[in-house]
Design brief:
mainly alpha; single chain; 306 residues
Length: 306
């Protein structure tokens, strides 16, 4: 294990994903969401293939035992991605990022309901705290539901929240999928399924991108694919409990990019809600680490000596 290398990879992946989101936001006024998903997915495939070849996992790493499992993972993950991309056209980048943090909180709930994972009182309390933070971020936007505020912001907030639900369901399904499928197959066929699913939106009016837009769209695939590889690799270099908290560096990047690139100044509600969500996420990670250490101590105590 190489903790520093793992942390570096995690931070690099977070940076690349933020670059991807920024590029999507930059073209969102002109490029339809389905078209953006197509470029993100299809342009990532060559990057992933090179990675698989370099690791000696092509083509044997692409063997599939559960085709339906990959199809369902593709439907859930692509829906989450599409909602996230669409939301970037409605809301500031920091706000989309903050609402997106609802996904790991919802994953805890769905894992308990669908996989039967045991969720103790501490983790449920942390999830509840995090969802309060999400509601604080959403509150100004949801006022549009009652005839007040900006209806466009309300639409964007609901889309991003639905995307978080799909992303959480996708993560829960991946937990089940890894029991029978290799990670390389899951990563590759998600790219394939996202590409094919996005083509279904072609009749709804794709547009011809300008050279600048085309470059940005291609970059979303390259940065997204590279970010996915770095994220996967980071968990091979260090414990998940050490790596996971660095995901929240994306909030710092979102604030910086939003301010300096898109001239977006987040409100106090967004900042306060994001702080609560991050705190809740860190509490869950800390608790999982404590439980992991406790289980390790119990295993050592049960190991016979001599």
């Amino acid at each position: 294990m190489h903790p520093l290398r793992g942390i570096t990879m995690k931070l690099a992946s977070v940076t690349l994903f933020m670059g991807m989101s920024s590029a999507i936001k930059a073209v969102s006024d002109h490029i339809p969401t389905g078209e953006a998903v197509f470029f993100r997915a299809s342009c990532a495939l060559p990057v992933i293939l090179v990675w698989l070849v370099a690791r000696g996992e092509f083509p044997q790493g692409l063997r599939v035992r559960s085709p339906f499992g990959h199809v369902l993972r593709g439907l859930l993950g692509t829906s989450g991605m599409a909602c996230g991309f669409a939301g970037l056209g409605f809301l500031p980048l920091p706000e989309v990022t903050a609402i997106g943090y609802a996904a790991p909180l919802l994953t805890v709930i769905f894992a308990a309901l669908l996989l039967g994972e045991q969720v103790r009182r501490f983790r449920i309390s942390a999830v509840g705290l995090g969802m309060i933070g999400v509601m604080i971020v959403l509150a100004p936007d949801l006022s549009g539901l009652f005839g007040q505020g900006d209806s466009r912001a309300t639409t964007g907030a609901l889309i991003v929240l639905v995307g978080a639900v799909f992303s959480a369901l996708a993560q829960v399904w991946v937990r089940r999928l890894v029991m029978t499928e290799k990670v390389s197959a899951i990563v590759f066929f998600f790219g394939v399924s996202s590409t094919l699913l996005s083509l279904l939106t072609l009749p709804f009016g794709w547009v011809w991108p300008t050279p600048t837009e085309a470059a940005l769209l291609v970059s979303t695939g390259v940065t997204g694919g590279a970010g996915q590889i770095l994220l996967t690799s980071s968990y091979r270099e260090a414990d998940a409990s050490l790596i996971a908290p660095f995901e929240y560096a994306s909030m710092v990047l979102a604030l910086a990019v939003g301010y300096f690139v898109f001239a977006e100044v987040p409100g106090w509600g967004t900042l306060a809600g994001a702080a609560i969500i991050v705190t809740a996420g860190l509490l869950i990670i800390w608790r999982e680490r404590q439980l992991g250490l406790e289980r390790a101590r119990q295993r050592r105590a049960m190991t016979p000596l001599g």
